Amino acid sequence: MYDSGRSHISVTMRHNVGGVRGRSSGQAYAESALSVALAPLVPLPSWRRPAVVAGGAAGLVLCLAVGALGGPPEAVESAKGFGALLGVVALVAGLLALFRWRRHQEFGAAYATAAALWQEAMYCTECAASWVPGDRRMIGQDQRLGWVLFRRAKQSGQPQRTR
Ligand SMILES: [Zn+2]
Question: What stretches pass through the bilayer (predicted)?
Fold first, then answer.
């Protein structure tokens, strides 16, 4: 058992790391169960994009309000309708941005840790399991490597977290 670490056949998996999706062999490979198990975590959705949309919509509402000031009544009425619509867009996008921002606050560090661990993770074809060097816990092929690493990162990050 002493040498069990040495007997592992280390195969490091990489999946579309550069964002280039292969259309031929890469695609078929990406659909295998093993590849699904070893796939990297899907990154947290951006909170900046909806924040930009919310800011833009709010800015347009302001422009409309300023533009409608002193205009003919029909122009004010149509500006009100369009402004209300933009207000709803700003509100929804703002809430989405806030929700995502809070997820980044809560899980961002664990995600980053899990992504770094995923980069280091090894896979052994004989054991059909993966592991992170320096961590004896094996991760079976029936588990999603990315999620296991995320859960571990979350757990190890909890004691230090102050809320
Ligand atoms: Zn092995």
Answer: 51-69, 81-99
Ramachandran angles phi, psi of 126, nearest 5°: -75, -45
- Cα–ligand 1 centroid distance for 153 (angstroms): 23
| Of the candidates 142, 110, 141, the residue with the CA atom closest to the CA atom of residue 128 | 141
**pLDDT per position as a tens digit, 33-56:** 888 899 999 989 999 999 999 999
- The full set of domain ranges for the chain reads 36-157
Tokens, residue 15: 């999946």
Å from CA of 131 to ligand 1 middle: 10
Query: For residue 93, how far is its CA from the centre of ligand 1 (angstroms)?
Result: 48
> pTM of the prediction?
0.66
3-state secondary structure 68-127: HCCCCHHHHHHHHHHHHHHHHHHHHHHHHHHHHHHHHHHHHHHHHHHHHHHHHCEEECCC
Cα 142 to middle of ligand 1, angstroms:
15
Tokens 């989405």: give the residue.
96
